[in-house]
Amino acid sequence: MAHQLTFFESHHKVIPCIGVLVPLVSMAQIQGMSASKILNGTGLTYDDLLNHDLTVSFDQIETCFENIFSQLPYNEISFQVGKQYFYQNHTPIKTALLNARNLNQAIRIISRFSLIFFPFTKFDKFIVGKKTHFVVSHGVKQSSEHCERFFTEVMLSMLSTFFNWRFPEITITIELPFNQPKHFEQYFAYIKHPVTFSKPLFLISLDSDSLNIEQASACNLLRHQAMQSLQAYSKQSCLLSQLAKLIQNDPTTTLELAAHYFSLSPATLKRKLRLHNTNFKYEKDLALKHLTVFDLMHNAASNQALSDKLAISDLTNFRRMFKRWTGKTPNELRLAK
User: Fold this and answer.
1) Domain count along the chain
2) Residue 214 within a domain
3) What is the pTM assigned to this prediction?
4) What keywords are annotated for this sequence in UniProt (predicted)?
5) For residue range 8-48, what is the model confidence (pLDDT) as tens digits?
6) CA dist list (Å): 263 to 7, 47, 131, 132, 308
């Protein structure tokens, strides 16, 4: 069935500038970089950023980051931007989160208003036994490795600041799908939770019971006021996130079926994906990899069960596909757990 869906793309100006762009520009200026160099190629001026209601595109934020990355040594800017989010960002989404009854409610708010909170990543929730896991992936566009690392660090710093401030009794564990970086000590300085590197997935885990712990000093009235203000904001998600969800719900999805779902022609969908530095095959592999690796590592799923879930009749083809995704066979990954 075709759907009249609304989604945003990397060039759409729908992201509030106050969340990431303003503190990013501010941090780079503190380190001596001029606003004109930071904003070069974005079509923005410093005066534009004085507008509290300004919305910008992912492409504009990415361009600013690349400008900064080319001029300044890699340092803790990403972690500082994330830390500032809750301390200096006075917005309805912040008020709503700081006054959520518990983590369950906070997660629902983040999911509903991800465009306002942090649209650069998406979270897939899984519950296994007494644990709740969130598989995290970059959602808007396939960017450079250092740009994706930047958004990862901003998001982790945001979450760590939130937990340390509002839920200090809760510990989360973080697994990252890249090798330990040279500046790894900053992870332990800013993220007060266990972090491990070189894992097959970007995974955040915590005890399910902790989701119901009441947030200290939460105010229902302030949360209700904030939620009223948030109703005016768009609740749409990005193209790549919606495509991944479609594929995970039906692993047999083809380019043609996906295009029909989005009420687009296959050629138009291919063009849109190309503008996001990706293609349908890559996005399908990525979406199915997340599901399959999680089931193998945390649900102890057999090769046959995983193959059936992906609608693959030949186990040899499944093992070959799995190795293409991860660089390891299913059994090798089980042994490396």
Assistant:
1) 2
2) yes
3) 0.91
4) DNA-binding
5) 999 999 999 988 999 999 999 999 999 999 999 999 999 99
6) 12, 39, 38, 35, 29
